[in-house]
Structure formats: C-alpha cells, structure tokens
Amino acid sequence: MRIAVFTGGESFEREVAFWSAKNVVAELLRVGFDVKQFDIPSELPKFLEMKDQFSCVVPMLHGKGGEDGTIQGFLETLKMPYLFSGVAASAVAMDKFLAKTTISAQGIKTPEARVLSRGDVYEFEHPVVIKPIPCGSTLGVSVVKLSEELHAALALGFEYGDRLLAEDFIVGEEFTIGVIESGGDARALDVIQVISPSGLFTFEEKYIADKMAEEICPAEISEDLARRLQAAACLAHKALGVRHASRSDFMVDARGEIWFLETNTIPGMTAQSLITKALRVGGYDFGALLKSWIESVV
Fold first, then answer.
1. How far apart are CA 245 and CA 262, in angstroms?
2. Which terminus of the chain, N or C, has less C-beta within 10 A?
3. Domains of the chain by range and CATH?
4. Which of 11, 13, 181, 215 is the catalytic position?
5. Is 142 a catalytic residue?
6. Of the candidates 134, 142, 102, which has an alpha carbon nearest to the alpha carbon of residue 115?
7. pLDDT tens track for 206-248
8. Does the active-site annotation cover 137?
9. Does residue 133 surpass a pLDDT of 90?
C-alpha cells in the first residue's frame, strides 16, 4: 500500500511539521508501507498528478492550514482517505475559544477568557495569558501580570494571528495527556507533567535540546489525580469529535481542580514529542498504531 505524507505547510510551525514527518515516515517504512512525502502547498500539483497511486494521506501539518480543517476539506473533496480528525473537529479544536466552550459544556473547568481583535480596548484585573487563537507550539504566547506588559504581549500575539485569547492565568502545575484510539476505544496514555524553567512551556523548551523543559512520564502524582486527568482528556477527545489521536493540556491548581487549556488534533510526533514519549512508556508500537489507523480508513 502506498501512503502520501503531507508536511511543511505555511504556518509558523512549518519546521516542526518536517520534524514530525521525519519520524512518521520512518515508522511507516518500518511497518512495510511504500511512502512518498510532499511539501505542502508547493507540491500539491505533483500530488494531484499522482493521487491515484495512493491509498491514504497522513497529514503531518501543524497549525493554520494543516490542523484547522483546511487540508482535511481538500482531501474530503478528493474522496481521499486520511488520518486524524475530520473537518469539523479540526476547525473547532484549532479555535481555542470554541474548544474551551465545547469542553466547558461537558462540565470540565476552563479558565475565563475573552477574544481580542486588533484595536480592541482591553483591561485586566489579575494575571492573564495572551495567546494567538490559530497557533500551537506556544508561539506568540505571553503571561501578563502587570499593565505595562500588556502592549508588548498584544503586539507579539498579533504577529501570529488576527484573533487573540486573553485567558485567566491559573497558578498550578501543568500536565498533558495523549489519547489514542486502539481496538475501537479511546485510551488515555500516561500523564506527563511539564516543569518549565521559565514558567511557560515555550517553543524552545519543547524542541531545542539544551533548553528543554523537564517532562516527567508517568507524572509523579496520586492515582486519583492521574485518573481524573486521563478521564478529562478522553472526554475532550470525544466531545470535540477527534479521531485517532489527540493531546490535551491542563493545569491543576493548589486545590486539585483541573483546568482545560486546549486540545491538539495533530500533536507533534517527532521522536522527542510528548505523545511519542508517552507511547514508548506505555509500551505501544507507534508504527503499528499508524498502520491500524490507516487500515481503519481505507
């Protein structure tokens, strides 16, 4: 079976997409697939010329254009099977405000937030996190504790998108949980605790070797908290309509309350990424999982 891997893209996460694709292509080759990689969008014409040669597309695209339903809609139009979430789930999960609204309706707490557009007048009473709505990898994100920090935070955020989320800053510990579909069920992986030297899990702390945050897997927390976090991640996965895999981020405050932050529908899948780390700890074969997901859609 021949598989096309889409990667690159035009978002600010283009470089990460290539890193993810490198690992995914290696896994697909290892489990016996014939694989060809395409740099999107420049090689879309080439793909269209060859599309009848492929049984399935694996989109390894992060951020705007790749994780927001755009490429998924393109593949739906072609009637080409593909991995990961469909158009609606991708679009809702990518819009951080819509995702928070969806998850809040399921009874999971999420920090109060307001959507900001260019020119909006905004004042805050306590620390907030300013984040671009269509971005991942903590790009353009700032924690604002003082009024004089707001202008710079907004300016940075608007470099990455036209809509920002101003979200209450939750003091506590940060956790991330991958969810995979295996054997027809959504299963939460081991909880990972993220301990960031800067207090904000930045792009550099995720991907740059000598600056990486501490990622403890499995997290050294009580069984009760681990179960509650895993249940929340599974609920987010199902409520958003995510398919095959997701990774959801949470804060836990001093009282043990869980706060939902966001869900990634195509989480980073580099060899060092959080979800691949949790797969290794859990004893899962990543290539075999990819194979099972492909077989479920073709």
1. 14
2. C
3. 2-83 (3.40.50.20), 92-109+172-283 (3.30.470.20), 113-168 (3.30.1490.20)
4. 13
5. no
6. 134
7. 555 555 678 999 999 999 999 999 999 999 999 999 999 999 9
8. yes
9. no
Catalytic residue among 20, 90, 137, 248: 137
Give the pairing of strands 2-8 and 34-40: parallel
Report the binding-site residues for Mg(2+).
Answer: 249, 262, 264
Strands (E), 138-289: 142-144, 163-168, 173-182, 185-188, 192-195, 214-216, 245-252, 258-264
Place of tokens 């997290």: 219
| Run of H or E including 235 | helix 223-239
d(CA 200, CA 184): 35
Arithmetic mean of pLDDT, 149-157: 91
- Which residue type does 130 have? I
Q: Which two tokens stand for residue 191?
A: 């909880």
Tokens of 249: 């981020």
Torsion angle, CA of 100/103/58/212, rounded to 10 degrees? 60
Residue type present at position 189: L
Q: Are 203 and 142 in contact (CB under 8 A)?
A: no
Judge whether 233 and 108 are in contact, CB under 8 Å.
no
**Tokens for 262?**
């966001």
Q: Which amino acids are annotated as binding site, given as ranges? A: 249, 262, 264
Annotated active-site residue 43? The verdict is no
Query: If we measure between CA atoms, which residue out of 172, 157, 148, 58 comes closest to residue 114?
Result: 157
For the stretch 6-46, pLDDT in tens is: 999 998 889 999 999 999 999 999 999 999 999 999 999 99
Q: Is the dihedral of CA 185, 107, 116, 173 positive or negative?
A: negative
